[in-house]
Amino acid sequence: MTHVQALIDAVGLGAVYALIAVGIGLVFGVLRLINFAYGQLIMIAAYALAFTDSWPDAGSILLAVAAAVVASLVMERVAFRPLRSADPSTMLVATFAISFLLQNGALLQYTYRQKGGLGDPVGTLGTLNQAVTLGSLHIRWVTFLAIGTGLVTLAALALLLNRTSIGLQMRAASLDFSTARLLGIKANTVIVSAVAIAGAIAALAAVILSIQAPLVSQTTGLNETIVVLVGVVVGGIDRLVSATLGGFAIGFVTSFLGFELPTLRTYSWLGWLPDVVYLPSVVYVLVIAVLLLRPEGLFARSGRVAAERV
Fold first, then answer.
1. Does 170 fall in a domain?
2. pTM greater than the 0.70 cutoff
């Protein structure tokens, strides 16, 4: 049953990573921009949860969504829009700069420094971090939340992209932005809509991550975003479906291999902690192998040219 436990946990982590991949893929679809600052949108939403910890859960989550959407829109208006016609590498560097700026800004906030650097606690939906026992299986409720949120979000996004005017415009813009503009599609409307939706999805990811690890710091969302970006490229960044599958795959493989591979125990001031020594090497060897065999992406359509990568 231990392998069943590992599979369930892997699906749960894959669902969270797929959610993050959707947000990254939406922005890439309309702007052809890999947004390395996406993790900081998750961080901002998580801090909103921490600062409203005494609020009712619904109010705290709504504020977190609003904070992430506003931050995403400000990021687009202040940084991305002025550089829209610039070289792709220039925009990429801009996302790095924004990411580090927001991380260092988080270090300045008062409550974080007062707690000795451990982070600010989040209690929103904290009971979902408890496990339900099914025989020999111990499954946390947040795993069910992650899977359910991922499925509902993907279904809602599919309806949006296929059944609404703005969704069809996003699809057209992702295929050929220049031609779409010539046909009357308003660039700013499409981009702002995609960026706002991506911000809302970042907030949903922040809620789940904050339940799993209820201490928020300036690195919240950062490591997850880096891993998901790798998965998005491996899956096939030129299509939202393949990018999402890539995000799920990297999360699933990381979790499952982390269970199967041997670990060491290292001592720190927190006591004896498990130290995964083989996982990063194995995962990235698999990533390199996939990119060598299928540079267009593992889940991309056969015969498609690989998307331009910066």
1. yes
2. yes
| Domain contains 290 | no
Find the domain containing 21 and state its range: 2-218
Which parts of the chain register pLDDT below 50?
265-274, 306, 308-310
Provide the pLDDT for residue 299. Answer: 86
Domain assignment present for residue 223? The answer is: no
Domains in the chain: how many in total?
A: 1
Q: Answer whether residue 89 is part of any domain.
A: yes
The string of pLDDT tens digits covering residues 245-269 is 999 999 999 888 877 776 654 444 3
CA angle, residues 252, 258, 264, in degrees to nearest 5: 170
Query: What CA–CA distance (Å, rounded) separates 117 from 130?
Result: 25
